[in-house]
Amino acid sequence: MEFIAQSLPATKRVALVAHDNRKAALIEWCSRHRELLQRHRLFATGTTGTRVEEATGLEVEKLFSGPMGGDQQLGAKISQGEIDLLIFFWDPFEPMPHDPDVKALLRIAAVWNIPVACNASSADMMVQSALMEVSFDREVPDYLGYLAAR
Ligand SMILES: O=C(CO)COP(=O)(O)O
């Protein structure tokens, strides 16, 4: 696989996702970073988005609920370059009926080299990074080159 440079914009499109046992932690995290988050564009799986909106007043674009396809919708958006950052508080203590979707979402985030945080301390470090509010280049697979070589 060849790679090319592609920039992430200064105003980030942030995906927020939390499994049920982790929703309180994500809401607490969003409340702590509310001022920063309102300068960016927020997306979420259905229930997570509703809870974050109710608790913080932040505006969130809500996709389907995770088990009904929301993780896959986010994965498609990442592939299409429509999500810049993934904050996914997945539950390390419970198996999920949609575990394959969860794994697929984490895989596609790795493929497209977007920043991912799976817990509050990683998410704290991510949003406090000097790169959070500037445009910066990262390497992504050269999709057109990949197609041409097939
Ligand atoms: O299941 C999820 C992620 O895998 C999250 O879905 P909800 O936000 O709808 O609870």
TrEMBL record:
It holds the Pfam family MGS. It catalyses: dihydroxyacetone phosphate = methylglyoxal + phosphate. Substrate binds at H19, K23, T45, G46, T47, T48, S65, G66, H98. Keywords: Lyase. It is an enzyme of class 4 (lyase). Its EC number is 4.2.3.3. GO terms for molecular function: methylglyoxal synthase activity. Belongs to the methylglyoxal synthase family. Catalyzes the formation of methylglyoxal from dihydroxyacetone phosphate. NCBIfam families: MGSA, PRK05234.1. This is Methylglyoxal synthase. It comes from Microbulbifer halophilus.
